[in-house]
């Protein structure tokens, strides 16, 4: 078994790759027009103008969940009328009312967790092996049509801290299209120390009520009777929430195990062998996932700040509206908070196909930015998926003539803002740090959290190196000063 490199060597090796592949310079110079591939051939054939679509069609497909125990989903029904609504399932608790808690309805799969079947050829490792891997991975058997089958359940990074931090401000609910067995298992994994994150009557699975569970859409009335003005929904899908879409915060889908299953299986094999050899007592370092397979998803830690801000603004709005008798609707606070991300940004897109451009344009508007198509409109940012386009040349020319001040960034810049609801650093995601394919001019698709991690690691190493240089300089100065002092003679 290959030994792991020391931590410092690993970071040096990682940063070496970062500097070579992203061309990160230790000198923080902005991208100049002369650096922006002005001599590349102009590509105009696939350069569309970007306009917001009237609406995005709902594909009507739900992610397959373990344990298919109900009939095949029926076509999407119309929104239930008032006479069709079921009686309230959950009542507002006294502590929620006294603490002005908002209701937070949570999805499970691809939002808080990622569950996948274990490969049929993989041996079933003891739980201590899975725990020793140290990535918040669980394994269980879930009932399927052919019987119980082993599954991996991976928790999204930071989920425990997310729930604990928001518990004083929010009353949690769960609405999942998975089975009750799966729901109860995940609830135990989310609350291993019994901190009371979830009440039994605040959770809903597809097995609980055929009326609300038989179709592929979700109805908040199945799990939560709180006024819709007090409800926030966190889900990786928004179109399935019928007429509650304005209350949905759509999160990036969490699909770590879908993408890294083979790497995790290999790491489990090495961990099992390491434990058989005696573990720490053997003197061999514990095997770990390689850096490319580690999970840098920082969505939930970022959303702690967002949800805290939303609750704070909601309470302030309640205090201001109390005298006037106005109703405070949390969906307006959600919308206003989200729009602060790219407020006052005039963003131009280049190098995207029509579908990608339309989707990103819609998101930019949702996050407070303005999408423009002409350099004459004065873009503040050019988001560049491909070099050598007509817009690249026009922006570079205007910057060279000093008639335009524009930041040229990788699409990761947008993705990071969409995920964190915070204006991202242009320096970290500036296009000069990324190497385009010399044949197509296309810039690589990157995980924005990984890019941010590499940049933060580089900054910390630079700070540490600067501190060591300063300490060495101070030590040399002290030594020289001591040597230059005349000796003290005895009287």
From TrEMBL:
Phylogenetic lineage: Eukaryota, Sar, Alveolata, Perkinsozoa, Perkinsea
Region (Disordered): 33-96, 461-491
Subcellular location: Nucleus
Descriptive protein name: protein-serine/threonine phosphatase
CDD domains on file: HAD_FCP1-like
Domain spans labelled FCP1 homology: 97-274
Enzyme Commission designation: 3.1.3.16
Every BRCT domain range: 337-414
Organism: Perkinsus olseni
InterPro entries cross-referenced by the UniProt entry: BRCT_dom, BRCT_dom_sf, Fcp1, FCP1_dom, HAD-like_sf, HAD_sf
Catalysed reactions, semicolon-separated: O-phospho-L-seryl-[protein] + H2O = L-seryl-[protein] + phosphate; O-phospho-L-threonyl-[protein] + H2O = L-threonyl-[protein] + phosphate
Keyword Hydrolase attached: yes
Bias (Polar residues): 481-491
Entry's Gene Ontology cellular component terms: nucleus
Range of residues in the leader sequence: none
Record's keyword annotation contains Coiled coil: no
Gene3D superfamilies for the chain: BRCT domain, HAD superfamily/HAD-like
Superkingdom of origin: Eukaryota
GO molecular function: RNA polymerase II CTD heptapeptide repeat phosphatase activity
Pfam name, any one: NIF
Keywords assigned: Hydrolase, Nucleus
